[in-house]
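Backbones bend. To wit:
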Amino acid sequence: MPLHSVVVLPILFFTAVSSTTVYDSYNDFAEEDDTPQLDYKDPFWCHPPGLTNGEATCRSPRGGAHRSTLGTRCEMRCDRGYRLIGRTSIQCLNNRRWSGTAYCRRMRCHVLPLVHRGRYFCSQGFMVDSVCSFTCDSGYRIEGEHTRTCQHGGSWSGAQPVCSDIDPPKIKCPPSRLKVAEPGKLTARVTWDPPSASDTADKSLDVILVGQQPGTDFQEGVHIIRYKVYDQARNRAACKFIVRVEVRRCTELSPPMHGSLTCSSDGNNYGATCDYHCDGGHELRGASSRVCQFSRSWDGSPAECVPMEIKSDVKTVSALLDQFYEKRRLLIISAPNISDADYQLQNVMIQKADCGLDLRHFTVIELLGSPPRETGRIKERLLETEVIEGLRQVFRISRSYFSMVLLDELGLDRERFIMPIASDELFSYIDSFMLDEEERERLELHREFCD
């Protein structure tokens, strides 16, 4: 018959983290026949510890060869790239179990962000020791590290790279062009469509013109037109083309003998008009003007300035005056007789001013005496009696005293003098009131001719 007795056992516990000794006792403990007997000598009291992807370093009270005897303590350590989950130290207890568990979990880094305009490839995903290589799209370049490595502590090496735009925009200018100056001008209006630019990164770009604006007047010669464009990364592209303005020209016209030319624009360019003018005492024969054609030739034929032919044997005053209409001005001198003192004085001054009168396109008509011995003359050419009478009646010229009448190119009475007048005073009046601007300019050019 089994012997039953009450046994009081003192139990001693040691904790892993403290040197404190704790004593505990249990009363009224009934000892069973199958209660395991503690055996510190049994080498396999606990099952042998193992740690996948790690290592358990154990120390037994019995020595290094006893890795799972009662009281053996094992330090748990994971391999590189793994993190320990659980107890870092376990002990073989008297219940044949270890005081805790542990396992090694593979360490990993956080997911890398996407790279704008680029991509990356990782050798082992986001695990420790994985190397991620970065590449950029065409037209972009890596700025920063080309690779990042997942380190043992779970952080990535380096900084996240970016893809920078290195591809310049694309721009194409219009073709170069030749433009002929407009008729009568030395400029041409040139137009073109501004170029458009494109870029791999930017949808909208500002195109900058360097040069004259399209749709404006370009001077004769070569003009270089440039366009440039920048993208947001300040990459630059440019293009250029040439605008050439050509002035088509005729050979220069020579002024006629005893005459001159006045030309519009530049004188011999396409569309220019040149007008012929004759010196005093001469009249134009041929076209009064010529125009430079696109073919670089003048229209018509050259004009001539020939001595003015005055017919004095006409029968009416209108026939006489028609010869001067819009060609010459008239200075009509009247005196009672050739011995009149005023006439003689004026005649001397007129003879000295003859050249100046020719430059101003004046013809002198003299009416002298009274019927039946009255005479009228232009220089040595005598006028008919009917013409003399007609001049006196039309312009109300008296026979009884000296007078002088100025008629313009339209035959209008512009001024009368009843006393002899010096040539300087006469010319001052004529130049101020009877000549147009063009005639004054020509007069200045030829004034020395009479000195």
In short: The chain has six helices and 31 strands. The domain at 171-246 is CATH 2.60.40.10 (Immunoglobulin-like). The first strand starts at residue 9 and ends at 14. The chain has five domains: 9-105, 118-165, 171-246, 259-307, 317-450.
